[in-house]
Specification:
The structure is a single chain. With 245 residues, this protein is α/β, with parallel strands linked by helices. It has 8 helices and 9 strands.
Length: 245
């Protein structure tokens, strides 16, 4: 059994915790949850033998603990991947992981197709675009980050991320999957069907592809946030189960 810890006791962290305790990561054992409210630190999880830690907190928390965990040989599945918009930090993380035999496994979050994007990036002419579908926002509550997005925007991945760093982690993950920020772009569009969501549009000199995820009205109290949190559990299974992809 692989020993697993979680950073964050909020909504995302609770979804991940409940999923592991429900047996959705059958080859894993949960050793604890780190958060300031619980008085438990990420280092405490490493002391308990955690081999992989899922981060479900905030970019600042990830920046604070990630390098130290990697130096201890602990691998990390981060949900706050917007921290990697800082390319110097990203390179420090890569260097540390190489030196200590640890890994950072990026979950797909609210998007999909990163494995395909990584394959596309091995051929010339690579371009990856995250398209965010921005539905009618008049009924959205104040404070909803989508409410501040422009209806029509085209720019680089970093320019897009800067529009709403609190909820566009997926843009940074996509850029890494696409082989670097120079290959990655971001657009917003008004959806014809009125549904919010994301598409990842890929192309190179050999092929093109589109992977789309659209939101559905919550059913049985299952929000889209569940998909984001459970992408970390899916990634955990990918790196711990004997048959994987």
């Amino acid at each position: 059994m692989t020993k697993v810890g979680i950073i964050g006791a909020g909504r995302l962290g609770t979804i991940v915790k409940d999923a592991i305790e429900a047996g959705l990561a059958p080859d894993c054992e949960l050793v604890g949850v780190a958060s300031r409210s619980l008085g438990v630190t990420p280092s405490d999880l490493a002391d308990k033998g955690a081999e992989i830690i899922i981060e479900a907190s905030k970019p600042a928390a990830l920046r604070e603990c990630l390098v130290g965990l990697l130096e201890r040989g602990v691998s990390v599945i981060p949900l706050s991947t917007g921290a990697f918009a800082d390319e110097d930090f990203l390179e420090e993380v890569r260097r540390t992981a190489r030196e200590h035999g640890s890994r950072v496994y990026l979950p797909h979050g609210a998007e999909g197709g990163f494995d395909l994007a990584a394959t596309f990036s091995l051929l010339p002419g690579m371009k990856g675009t995250v398209v965010q579908y921005v539905p009618e926002r008049s009924g959205m509550p104040d404070g909803n980050p989508m409410k501040a997005l422009p209806e029509h925007f085209k720019g680089t991945a970093l320019e897009g991320f800067a529009l709403s760093p609190s909820h566009l982690n997926v843009v940074i993950e996509s850029a890494i999957a696409c082989g670097g920020f120079g290959n990655a772009f971001y657009e917003t569009r008004i959806p014809e069907d009125g549904k919010g969501g994301f598409s990842l549009e890929l192309e190179n000199d050999a092929a093109e592809a589109v992977i789309t995820i659209k939101n559905k009205p919550p059913k049985d109290d299952i929000p889209m946030m569940s998909m984001i949190a459970l992408s970390a559990v899916s990634t955990l299974n990918r790196v711990t189960q004997p048959v994987t992809f």
